[in-house]
Design goal:
mainly alpha; 4 helices
C-alpha cells in the first residue's frame, strides 16, 4: 500500500519527493499548496528567489525526513 503524503495535492510520497527535488516544480507546487491552505504570506515567500532557494533545500530535507514540505510561517 502506498503511503500518502500530506502535501502536493495528496499525491503519493514518491511522486511528491520527485516534485520536491526538481526546483521549478517544487516552487510552483509549494506556492500553490500554501495558497490552498490559506497561507498567503508563506506562499509569497516561496516565490522570491533568495528565500525560495533556501526553502527548496529545506523542502527536500523535510520530504525525506517528515514526508511533508517545510512550513516556516502559518500566516
Amino acid at each position: 500500500m502506498a503511503t500518502r503524503s500530506k502535501d502536493y495535492f495528496g499525491l503519493d510520497y514518491i511522486v511528491s519527493l520527485i516534485l520536491a527535488i526538481i526546483p521549478i516544480t517544487s516552487w510552483i507546487c509549494g506556492f500553490v499548496t500554501r495558497f490552498q491552505e490559506g497561507k498567503i504570506v508563506a506562499g509569497l515567500l516561496r516565490v522570491f528567489v533568495p528565500t525560495g532557494i533556501v526553502i527548496w533545500i529545506l523542502d527536500i530535507v523535510f520530504m525525506i525526513t517528515r514526508r511533508q514540505i517545510f512550513r516556516l510561517l502559518n500566516i
